[in-house]
Amino acid sequence: MFAADQASRGLGVELLEQGEGTAVLRMTVTPGMVNGHGIAHGGYDFLLADSAFACACNSHGPVTVAAGADVTFVAPAYEGDVLVARAEERTRFGRSGLYDVSVLRGDEVIAEFRGRSRTIGSTSASTAASAAASTPASTTSKESR
Question: pTM for this one?
Answer without folding.
Answer: 0.81
